[in-house]
């Protein structure tokens, strides 16, 4: 462990400024930033972004992408998240599904899905969690039964973000009752408009309706929608999670908040100056860590432990930032008040989920601890 | 392995046989560690980042910080930071050469220099009793011989000398006019040197704590197997990682010949100084009573972490400076400033 700092090349730095300039002219001036990947679901924005070549960048050119490196994608995604741009529509498809299709998909699936993802026209959700399977993902009960040249899937998925708006979701389910509970798992690509799929919202504490319960009742999934190999679902899912943990989404949720704090209040005294400076110092350091992980992925390494550490550090940073800004802003929060108050309200009510989604703090620390104690980390 | 990593390892190799538990005890008792010093000086490691024309070993700020990480990890009880990165570079910027032997320096706003004579005193001078002293006095940089003036011994929590030196009436060996940025540049390098030392020590604390908790058994298994103890290890690893990334990024930002940037140093020292406390707390919790003993060797590291985080103004003051400067830049400049990062020149 312990990465060295990485420099951006002049071309990578130019790309950052290009994205920044495009966002400045594309987003309205009174735009209310989303909290990082909690940005709005806006298919029109996703398509406009895709027209710039900035959706599915790391998809190879032959499948409609730009064949970009991890670092190039990092640069673009970081700018989008920092601006709080409405990226949610294409987010999972481009971050999670496209790389999974590239690694495990059939040629036919790649030819069909990847160009649509890169065009900002095909949106995915994640169908992993279930009522009885959270951190212990391998205990999923949703089951697919073999039928002719396909599968019949039944079960219940929960917390499925934007299932009511997206086109597909990748469902982790049981395809055999093997004794080894990891061996019987597979991933199926399910069309959310298929007969037998019913989506109902689960209201969250702030009253927002973006996560859902998705009930699958004998839903037909043809063989050509199996992702990867039957029985390999567990290996595939763990590979997906490890790679996507340490991206800029783990520290960018609060950039809009920091911006509006400076715009509305500034640092009137030493105490607020030190508190704000501390936040900035952490942010400055964590993004170097995250960038270093991206660079090492491009160099062919698989820094799973480091990625878990960065996610943990990043999400804890985000939560502490909300508390600190709230303290030094010293105001009562009205959710319809000034921009700072609106963002603070949203942050206070969403911050708990930052250390849950994508692997809880406790689970991440467990992964890191195992690596540390067996000397697995360099 | 990169050149920087090789340099760090080379210094670690030199220190392994010399910066031993016995040598550290002796240094604390005597206030000086001649063998550690001469090994580092002979290897040219004490004057990295000081141009060869000024009698140094040459090299970048990042290389000097790599040396300091290794010194921090080994608790090397000698003024390597002061001799090279701090005093050495200060002297070179005024066209002076680095004197033989250890050199020290400190911020010196209260010292004046006229008619060839100094007036005023400096406090908390690292190894002030044994090293030549280089200072900014008025618009000059001056060098005084070791032991000049009235030296009142003091020390930090780690038992490293931090002396009070009254220079009134002392005639410097040398002096030269110095540019307007010298004081500010020195202060930045001072803070950066502490960030690098902390990063090195934090890494050593991690190694020591992982090893001990993997061997110490209670309830029939190594204590590291208890999730609550493992969480301390992860906490130390995270803090060591972020401190090192911060210190290295700020040092790299100086390029081949330049000085580190204000924002980078403030961020790096703030992060490292917070990490210092967190690492020490978690390591002592995980190692129980054994970690509290003089013999075990955690204390030489944690006492340094607790000392270094407060030097050169301390992390909180640098955080406040960073906060004020970001606020002065305005809300729209915030993200562009933070994300500027390192950009390759070619
Ligand atoms: C806003 C939001 C959006 C989400 N979107 C999606 C989505 O689109 N698709 C999807 O599939 N999922 C989604 N999730 C679910 C998310 O992945 C789960 O919340 C997460 O995996 C944790 O599971 P759980 O909530 O059931 O908590 P549990 O697993 O029930 O955990 C409860 C507590 O026990 C702790 N714990 C559990 N096991 C251990 C252990 N072995 N060691 C130590 N502590 C342990 C946990 O850390 C936690 O503190 C979303 C969650 C949120 C909050």
Automatic annotation (TrEMBL), chain A:
Gene3D superfamilies assigned to the protein according to its UniProt record, in alphabetical order: Acyl-CoA dehydrogenase/oxidase, N-terminal domain (1.10.540.10), Butyryl-CoA Dehydrogenase, subunit A, domain 2 (2.40.110.10), Butyryl-CoA Dehydrogenase, subunit A, domain 3 (1.20.140.10)
InterPro entries the UniProt entry points to: Acyl-CoA_DH_CS, Acyl-CoA_Oxase/DH_mid-dom, Acyl-CoA_Oxase/DH_mid-dom_sf, AcylCo_DH-like_C, AcylCoA_DH/ox_N, AcylCoA_DH/ox_N_sf, AcylCoA_DH/oxidase_NM_dom_sf, Mycobact_Acyl-CoA_DH
Alphabetical keyword list: Flavoprotein, Oxidoreductase
PROSITE patterns reported in the protein's UniProt record: ACYL_COA_DH_1 (PS00072)
Keyword Flavoprotein: yes
Cofactor: FAD
UniProt xrefs under Pfam families: Acyl-CoA_dh_M, Acyl-CoA_dh_N
Domain named Acyl-CoA oxidase/dehydrogenase middle: residues: 126-218
Listed SUPFAM superfamilies: Acyl-CoA dehydrogenase C-terminal domain-like, Acyl-CoA dehydrogenase NM domain-like
Protein's UniProt keywords contain Ribonucleoprotein: no
Acyl-CoA dehydrogenase/oxidase N-terminal domain boundaries: 11-121
Name by which UniProt lists this protein: Acyl-CoA dehydrogenase family protein
TrEMBL record, chain B:
Keyword tags: FAD, Flavoprotein, Oxidoreductase
All residue ranges annotated as the Acyl-CoA dehydrogenase/oxidase C-terminal domain in the record: 192-304
Acyl-CoA dehydrogenase/oxidase N-terminal domain location: 3-87
SUPFAM superfamilies in alphabetical order: Acyl-CoA dehydrogenase C-terminal domain-like, Acyl-CoA dehydrogenase NM domain-like
Known cofactor(s): FAD
Pfam families hit by this protein: Acyl-CoA_dh_1 (PF00441), Acyl-CoA_dh_N (PF02771)
Matching InterPro entries: AcylCo_DH-like_C, AcylCo_DH/oxidase_C, AcylCoA_DH/ox_N, AcylCoA_DH/ox_N_sf, AcylCoA_DH/oxidase_NM_dom_sf
Family: Belongs to the acyl-CoA dehydrogenase family.
Name this polypeptide is given: Acyl-CoA dehydrogenase family protein
Record lineage: Bacteria, Bacillati, Actinomycetota, Actinomycetes, Pseudonocardiales
